[in-house]
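Blinded run. Sample ID left blank on purpose so nobody reads anything into the name before looking at the predicted structure. Input follows.
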Amino acid sequence: MSKHDESRRAFLVGAAVGAVAGAGLKSTDALAQNQARPAADTSHAHANGHGAFFNDEDSATVAAFTERLLPGAPGQPGAREAGVLNYIDLALAGAYSDQQDFYRRGLAALDAYCRASNGKPFAALTAAQQDAVITALEEGKASQFTWPSAQAFFNTVRTHTMEGVFADPVYGGNKDFAGWRLVGFPGAQPLFAPADLQSSNAYGSGSIIGLQARKG
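Blinded prediction complete.
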């Protein structure tokens, strides 16, 4: 893993650790404060590109973009492995449906910028080229963007990537608790002993539990 990849992972993981520390052991929803919606049907696979909202091309773009935000490494799941694409796709088909046009226009502008600057769509670029594009968006230097702005698009996708990695798996991301394992978050445990609440060490008294397991 390159130093650039390490820094991107460190930023997102560090932000999640801060969220967990701020929330204590009280609620799994502290990692996704905009998740006030019914449990999602997480069965929308993207094996053929199609999902609940994204088409083939957009699926490939979002999958590649989010993976550069949180790159995978041996023994360390990235955005693809955590199911971030599925999370964002389901959210845009449901609770985040008001952001559908935001994504449509943002992805179209991203494609136009990549073709103008590199002659290829984002998903077809090398990792280094993709990183350069993302940096241009983050710094507001990418052309082709009007609404949303390049920075607004970058910030929104980064936020949704974090949600997809660290929110409860019931919402379609955090596959196999990949994000929670990264930060040592135990999930929706039914009971914490006083010693657990006072300890500064990672909880290790049982299996990680998601909200789905608590539905009766």
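Unblinding after everyone has recorded impressions. Residues 3-23 form the longest helix (21 residues).
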